[in-house]
Amino acid sequence: MAQTSDHIKPCNIGSSKAHNRRTQEYLKRINKDRLYIRSDLTPQNSSWESSLMEGKDLTAYYNEIARMVKEKTGRAMQTKERTVINKKTGKTKIVNGSSPLRESVVVCKQDTTIDQLKKYCDRCHVRWGITALQVFIHRDEGHYGIPGDNATWKPNLHAHIVWDWMNHDTGKSCKLDEKAMSEMQTVLAECLDMERGTSKEVTGKEHLERTDFIIAKQKQEAELAKAARQTAIAAKEEAEAELLFVEGENKAKEQYRHSLDSEIAEKEKQLKDERKAKVDSILDSVGSLVGVGKSAAVEKENAKLKAENERMKKAFAEAVKDKAEERTRALTAEKQKAEAERDRALVQSRSLAIERDKAVRQLQEQKDSERQRISQAVSQATAEKDKTIQLLQSTLKTNREILDIIADMLYAASEVFKRAIDAIIHYGTEKYKSIFGNDEAADIKSVMQDYGKSMKQQQAIGSWLCDYAESRHPFDEIKHQQTRKEIADVANGAYDWKFECTRGGISL
To answer: Taking the model in full, what pTM does it have?
Structure first.
């Protein structure tokens, strides 16, 4: 099951509206390296706004809160951080300024609805007195694995809730400690039908802002892709280096062969010149000594020497040719070996890429199959849940009708019951009434104790009394919640000390 969380911070009035409502000016100036919004998904976003915001924006509402604080406390609202000195100890401490408007960033699912988030807001209002003003679900934020490839799009599904964090009866901020903030996370998970995220006390991790989280994730994915790319490049460079080495060797060997050919030609020319000079010298000597008669023998010897010269030349050339061919064959074999190694590396690289792509496709198919299975299971569970809810609602309606009949009978027959109901109606319709009077609270407590033995039963009786009182005289939304809270305080014993004081003769 997907996990959820609620990160709350002071509301930035200057930017909240533009971001949440996706104004054109905002979309033009956002930094896409830190935040990416797909305009084609923006129509899937949804929102809700309280009637308290009718005809005004957050700035106007903030100003109304400032005026209310001034009227209730006689002091201007302290919004800046200040240093307070303890007169007894002399120690100083930093006191944060008031944040009358705060904003939640809630992690949600694709199918999370406004009604689910409103349910969460209502429970927070009843439990801690904070009031939701605006709710926005954003389904168009996220990032790409591969830029521009929608198949690699990874959405960042979340919602924004703007809160009124003030108690309008006292003019003071609602005080929620760490325990209360932790309880809010549990309530959120119940309302969204998601798993509660692990607290930072357990993980030791600090909260990352939305854009910082996306950047960190993109950086991790980019580093993995870079490492794979560098491995492939290194393999390619190694193969190319081997090829260049072999080609260099071949070139050097070819140059050496040409050098040998030049040297052989030079030696042959030198030998030819020396032999010609020697023969000419012999002929001159013989001619002068023996005359023409013996020139034929000299010419015969000369022809013999020429033939020997040609034979030696041919034999030497063949030897050089054989040596050059041997060296060429060796170099060719080495080149073929290097080319085979290069081809093998390239084939292996392509094979690895194919295997990687296959693994990615299989993983995606597995994810799609799992997503479809989960969707079917959720749909089935939702249908069963709706059926159960309808049955319970029908039963509840019948029970409420019976309870209303009983309440009508008690209202007519019991003076204490009548006074308790009238006290609740008076509280719920009186705009500035913040607590019950002693006699009113005593009557309500008496009815709770008459029909409920345990505190849990008395709390249930209190809810019944509220419902019946409101059926006789409807309350507005704010007084409805305040009345239920005050009735709960009576059931939980918050007024018991007043009863003790009254019985002891102390009038309050």
So the answer is: 0.43
